[in-house]
Task: structure prediction
Amino acid sequence: MPDEPDDTELEEQLRELGARLDPVPPRLLSVAADSYIWRTIDSDLAELVFDSALDEHVTATRGGEYARLLTFEAGGLSVDVQVTGSGQYRRIVGQLTPPQRLAVAVRQGQNLTGMDADELGRFGGPLGDGPFSLLCSAGADRDRPVVTDWISL
Amino acid sequence: MQQSEAGSLVKAAAGGDEAAWHALVEGFHGLVWSVARAYRLGSADAADVFQTVWLRLAENLNRIQNPDHIGAWLATTARRESLRIIRSHVRTVPMDDTALADFLQSDEASPEQAVLDAEQGMLDAQRAIAMWRAFGNLPARCQRLLRVLIATPRPSYVDVAAALDVPVGSIGPTRARCLRQLRRLLGEVSETESQAHLNKRGHRGENERAGRA
Result:
């Protein structure tokens, strides 16, 4: 269907309006550009397979404290995490299955924060605001590191 | 951006070419942001979606199956992430149902002020304010489509269809219908400006909220 000239002009006016009233915040443009540092060449991606906020059978609010439960899985490794708190002052604790001592790190913003799992596969530490992902180093039974899906809660 | 050009950029970025990455951000940042806004996320949630989409792309550069379709991939990822955030909030945070409040919103000043402050483009301030109000009175379906379509740079219909999860062939006709409605509203808004807030959509929104409560 040929475009009516009037429609093209009206759409361009709307585009100008959108650019004026609701542009991408400049801060976010820098964040997008900087995301490139997290490009990983050789790793397995652990996908989100469970999220308590999307599961009607789970009540994640208890005694006023908010906890979010997530599970990521990649061939042979399962990562369960619980996130509590809000904003800049969140906390993350996690469990690797099968349990194993492993170097785990949180990727967030431009930071990589190590929180190694003990021999029972438990790890934990502070978590800031914004999307994050976990990086689990290669282990005895895996020759590649595992990274989890990036997620914002 | 042509699909083949976008595809080349994805392959180059996957191979370590940082300039190609910046070109991808330049070419598609408006689309990603517009999708989050089209699903009516507030500033904080839209910022989370925006960041998550680019982080996912960086993570998946080597896993993208159709580099030429990167625009649709970004739009789809943004849509899914927006819907995921909406679903995760819906049981704890009441969704705001007002047509205008969280749409095309500006964090710093009122939209009217933002329009007046902006440098003169092809829109004069009065026309811009009228358009903003008319836009807010469009049916939700039209607001959503147009919000994605008016991203800068202009997205392809394929990418818009991916953002809305509708057939590509429906974009053109729906766009024509929505622009026609907008034009009609623009005529009405200038004549009965004081009644702009009495539109039917607002009332229906209130009834839905009352019904849910």
Residues 3-212 of chain B form one domain. Chain B has a mean pLDDT of 81. DSSP finds ten helices and no strands in chain B.
